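Hi F.,

I've been meaning to write this up properly since the lab meeting, where we talked about keeping a consistent format for the predictions we share between groups. The idea is simple: the sequence comes first, exactly as it goes in, then the structure tokens exactly as they come out, then a line or two of notes. No screenshots and no reformatting. I'm using this chain as the first example so we have something concrete to point to.
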Amino acid sequence: MAQKRGFDVARLFKTLGAILGFFITAMIFVFIGLIFINVMNLMLTEPIVFDGNTALIPIKGAISTTGGTDVWSKGGVKSGSVVKWIQEAEEDDSIKAILFDIDSPGGTPVGSVEIAEAVKKAKKPTVAVIHEMGTSGAYWVASATDTIFANRMSTIGSIGVKSSYLEFAGLMDDYNVTYRRLIAGKYKDIMSPYKEMSPEEQRKVQERLDRLHEIFINSVAQNRGLDVAHVHKIADGYIYFGDEAKELGLIDFIGSKEDAKKHIGQELNITVEFKKYSEKKGFFDMFTGVMHEASYTVGQGIGSVWLSSTEDKVDFLV
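Output, unedited:
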């Protein structure tokens, strides 16, 4: 009589281990391959700087003073870099005009104002082209230029200020979690997500928002030569399409970068050739960019509020 074989647990685990090992090895090779492809793509598509007569300065992504982003972000605009490029273009005798290539939702007030003020100080003609989006702080920058072009479907405006956050006080109560409040200065933890904001605190924050909004409105009115009352009426934080923005006086022309190029050529009687400005990236910077891209893809569904605390800051975005 044939003897029955028992269930070989060790053999099963050995097989599962081999399968898991193969899967992990394959994933490592795929990941390395993707990094290699992305790095090569970045190297091959890195903007080339031409000796042109018109500066082409990109403003793409969220604007801030550091250009820094959290692990889930796709990138941003460092105001200091843009200001430096504007100054370089101003000092370069071969540059006759500056074109700002804009696709941005805005950003921090200081970063946006730094760029806008540098644009206003420029002695050479300045032109902005808005692609998909030129809203909030990015529109603040665009408004400081001499002429604005946009697609009729571009989203423009959003002249407003926000400082919003998630509040977990109720959730903490549900799970019997205590926020032990130890501060010196009664507003030090204003807008802490771990406690409910008092009416007085809400009033204080709203005052800051209203003041910044007023500065924004006055700047746009001055930059665009519009009546302040008119800008007040349309500065409700809402967005407008390009054709609507043109009717409201927020932009000058419906058109593309090519149309802006023709405009500059006709105004200055030159054949426009772009000199492109961009951050000079080494291999490490490009590798970091690839990792940020991968992180963003993995984490784009996760709110960044879970990754940063508002304990020691009150963030305003325009």
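Notes:
Confidence is low (pLDDT under 50) at residues 69-73, 290-313.
Strands lie at 54-60, 62-64, 76-78, 97-104, 126-135, 147-150, 155-157, 239-241, 253-254, 274-276.

If this format works for you, I'll send the rest the same way.

G.
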